[in-house]
Design goal:
Mean pLDDT: 86
Largest sheet: 5 strands, parallel
Strand order of the largest sheet: 2-1-3-4-5
Strand content: 5-15%
Number of helices: 14
Amino acid sequence: MDDSRSNPDSIGWRARKGRLTSRDIASAAGVSQATVSNVLNRPELVAPATIERVMEVMHRMNFVINDSARALRAGRSRTQGVIVLDLSNPFWGEVTRGIEAVASENGFSVLLGSSEELRQKELTLIRVFEEHRVDGLLVSSVDPTSESIQALADRGMKVVLLDQKDPTGTHSSVSYDQVGGTRLIARHLIENGHRNIVFLNVAHNVSWSRERLKGLRDGTQEMGFDPDSVITELTIDSMTAQAAEPAVDNLLAATPQTTAIFCANDLVALGVLKQLHERGIRVPEDISVVGFDDSYFASLVSPGLTTVRQQPYKLGRRAAQ
């Protein structure tokens, strides 16, 4: 009697002739093709023992699921798309880790892309993710008010904004109290005698850049000082350490009376510390430097970087949930 149809170890001839199908798995496991489909797509409908038997057969036969075809049939891919501004920033690495943890716990995969703060690259990633039929998009957008983000919602895509608020009130969002965080910085610097503070910030098209400036100004005013006379905002090209070199040259030339530099994130602060050291300017004796995020390296530099703590891993988990 030829039992090759029911013995997973003797199915090699099928694998050599072409791609294995769910029908082959069903035959080898002694169940219906519908049962195999349920194991893959609706396991809650299948007895645990049957799931175990089918999964064992899949493993022994090296069966690979065609996820694209399954997504087309089911209308969903069990995949989350994630777009962040800059993967070289440790903050976004931790956010992504939190997202991936929740996705994995719930049987989802993650497609990840970095826009590098470029509008066109963000649009390209959105198109690619839609083509892969992601079930939802978690995005820190260059412009959360853009028509492309709104169009996603109009087409039924679930969108969650990362570390930014939606001024249109259309999308869900998860973010920290940026205003409150920089208000604390203002109080700290004013209490330590600083009356000439330079804020290295990015363009205001990113919501948190506006909110951090507001918090700095509010905190200064609450301490009894005029923000316009205390704070000088200088715009930098990107939130990177590399952007700090021309910024330091500019601020020392434009505002030689500066006693404190508040950097919009810890990466920028790291670049500022390096540039000040190379120019023989002591920190904090000559100029104080403050960052934002509490990245892992903030306590490793010497002197340790004063910064505002965020919890990016927790933010990522909450957004994915």
